[in-house]
Structure formats: structure tokens, C-alpha cells
Amino acid sequence: MNLLQRTFAAALSFAAFAASAHAESKTPPAGPPWTKDFLEAHRMAFERKKPIFIYSTKTHCPHCIVMEKGLLSDPKLAEFYDDVIWMYLFQDFSGSEADRAAQRVALRFGISAYPQHFLVDPYSLEVIADTDRSLASFSAAVKSAKVGEAGALTHELLRKADARAVEVETNLTDGRAIAALGDPDVVVRLLALRHLKDSKPEAIAAKAAELLAIPNDHIRFLVCEVLAESGGAEHEESLLPLVRDPVGSKNPNVMRMKAVQALGKLGAGHAVEAIRPHAVTGKWFNGLTSVSVDALAAIAGRSPNQRAAVKEALIAAYPVPPPPGDERQDRACRDLAERIHRALSDLTGKSVPFPETYNAPARTLLQKAW
After folding, report:
1. Spatial distance between the Cα atoms of 280 and 368, rounded to a whole number of angstroms
2. Per-residue pLDDT tens over the stretch 6-37
3. Please, which residues have CB within 8 angstroms of residue 356's CB and are 6 or more apart in sequence?
4. Above 50 in pLDDT, residue 218?
5. CA dihedral 264, 267, 272, 275 (to 10 degrees)
6. Bridge partner residues of 114 (DSSP)
7. pLDDT tens digits, residue range 149-171?
8. Does the pTM exceed 0.70?
9. pLDDT of 24
């Protein structure tokens, strides 16, 4: 088979896989007693005093297919059918009524990467365990999971909160959105924030510290985006923990990226200290690295007293070149090195030629040149 034939065959294979992925993800694997209705799952879990197992998937998700054809189709999983309430959460982002209902669940639990697989206490709606993707890890999580006691949260309160969220989705003004920021339900608040992001960002910035303390990725992402446009120095302290250790995040890399981008617009000394470790990793395929380099350069341009620390960090950030022979890695590494080089040139005002070939000796020479 020649190169053209191999390329065509690979394209057909990928297309077939993508089509398979979509079809498989939309249809729950046979076996577990699934429900797609979160309110129904909560009612059953609440009455039976069992955790809810939420499996979150979406259209065109190859990693999801691996789990759906693996763990979730494993006959040995039958041992646990009666131990949890099985919730299948599928999103196709079509905006249909079913998709909006799934989105509200995804927003509630901060889902922004797929697949997700976790156990929820029906009495607190807290995530009490991640099952991971193997039978052994699923078994360990289910056997060790303990739900609490019925308290302030009732099924009726959750049903009413979801009804308020539906109302917010379809009938919202700026005034109602600002009032909804005080709603006790996280989904209602998040939908209000989405409405206010463009029309009243100052209302979000005023509550940034309070909102960033909520362990929900969607809320934190949105607030970081607002602060990157209209935040001030007073918001730096609230952003730093999200860069250092975004506790509770289901997508910590993106969480850090959003916070770093905001700090690039408003941060100072403490921000440099927090961002530096992510700039010097040399991970050229991770967007967090380049975002961190750009943020450090922006801080140095705005804060002269941080220039020495930023210069040192950028010099250290020149990536160690990969072994020869991988063109894709070579190109990505060089792109990152050139990005750092431009930042150093702007910072110092010096003109240092970038080598035609970026290798280990070139890296050493560049670091010494600055």
C-alpha cells in the first residue's frame, strides 16, 4: 500500500470511528439500569439512601468510547447494579430540551472535560468519589462510598431550583440576573453570570472573590474571563490559589490557564511567583506554558519592579530540545523558544539573534546571551 492509499485508509478509519463514537455515546451501554433524568436519579437515590453514579459523555469523544466499550460494558459490573443509581449524562450541544437539561447537570458539577465518572451524595449533592475507569477502581470507590443523612436539601427543593434555572435560561433581564446572583442554587447563579458577562461585567467583578471561592469550574472560568477584561489589582489574591492548586477542579489545566490569563492583565509580584513554575516546564504541547510566558511578559511590561524576576524566569523557560527525528515536536519546541525569545527582546530592549537550529548548545548560548 502506497502513502496515498495509507492516508486515505486512515481517513476512512477515523471517520468511521468518529461516527461510531457519536452513536455509541448517545446510547447508554447495555447492562446498568441507566436513567438520563437527573431529577429522577436524585429522587431514587434520596429515597434509597444510595449514591448517584454520574457518567458524563458527549458527542465525538474517543476517550468516552473506550470507557463505554470497556468498563461500562463489563458483565462483572453487574455486581454493583444495585449499589448506586446509574445516571447517564449525554451532551450533544444541540440546544434541544434534553441537551439543556443535561447542560444544567454539567454546570452543577463543573463538568468541562470528558468523560467524567463520579459518585454524588444525594443529601448534599457533593461529589464523594471519582470511580476512575477500571473495574478495580470502580469497585473500590463504590464499596468505600458513604452517603450522609437527610438534611436541609430535599428533593422538592432541588426540583424547584431546576425550575428556576429553566426560567433563567429562557426569561432573563439584567435586573433579574443581578438578583439571581444571590440564588442559593449554583446553576441559577451560573446562568445569571453568563447573562451578565457581556452586559454587566462590573457586577461580576464586584463579587469576584466570593464567586471564585465556589468550587465549580464553569463559574470560575467565567469570572476569570471577566477579570481578564475588567479586573483590577484587588483581584490578584483571589486568583492565586487557582494557579497554585485549583482544589476541586475537574479540569485543572484549563482552570490554571484562565487564572493565569487574568493575572497577566492585573497581577504583580505574587503573580510572578505563582506563574513561574508553569512557564518553565518546557511542555510545548501544553497551552498553559505559552499562556504563562505571555502573562509574565505582560506583568513585566506593566510593573518595572518585576522585570528582573520575569527576566530570570523567561531565561529559565527556554525549553530543552527533544531528541532529533520528530518534526512535530521540533516545531512545537522551536515555536515556544521563539515566543520566549520575543518576550525577552521586548523586556530588555536587546537584540539577540535566534539561531537557525534550536538545539541544546543553542539553548545554552541563548541563556548566556541575556
Report:
1. 16
2. 333 433 333 344 344 434 588 999 999 999 99
3. none
4. yes
5. -50
6. none
7. 988 899 999 999 999 999 988 88
8. yes
9. 59
Taking the chain, what is the end-to-end CA distance rounded to the nearest angstrom? 51
For residue 54, the cross-strand partners are 87, 118
Pull the grid cell for residue 216.
465549580
Distance, CA of 71 to CA of 65 (rounded, Å): 10
Q: Where is average pLDDT lowest: 79-88, 180-189, 278-287, 314-323? A: 180-189
Q: Are 289 and 283 in contact (CB under 8 A)?
A: yes
- Note whether 120 and 128 are within 8 A (CB): yes
Q: Which three cell numbers stand for residue 84?
A: 448506586
Q: What's the length of the chain?
A: 370
Identify the sign of the CA torsion 33, 36, 42, 47: negative
Q: Which residue has the cell 468523560?
A: 115
pLDDT band at 4 (very low <50, low <70, confident <90, very high): very low
CA-CA distance, 73 to 53, in Å (whole number)?
A: 15
Longest Cα separation, the chain: 70
The CA distance from 162 to 160, in Å, is 5
What would the 3-class secondary structure string for the chain be? Answer: CCHHHHHHHHHHHHHHHHHHHHHHHHCCCCCCCEECCHHHHHHHHHHHCCCEEEEEEECCCHHHHHHHHCHHHCHHHHHHCCCCEEEEEEECCCCCHHHHHHHHHHHHCCCCCCCEEEEECCCCCCEEEECCCCHHHHHHHHHHCCCCCCCCCCHHHHHHHHHHHHHHHHCCCHHHHHHHCCCCCHHHHHHHHHHHHHHCHHHHHHCHHHHHCCCCHHHHHHHHHHHHHHCCHHHHHHHHHHHHCCCCCCCHHHHHHHHHHHHHHHCCHHHHHHHHHHHCCCCCCCHHHHHHHHHHHHHHHHCHHHHHHHHHHHHHHCCCCCCCCCHHHHHHHHHHHHHHHHHHHHHHCCCCCCCCCCCHHHHHHHHHHC
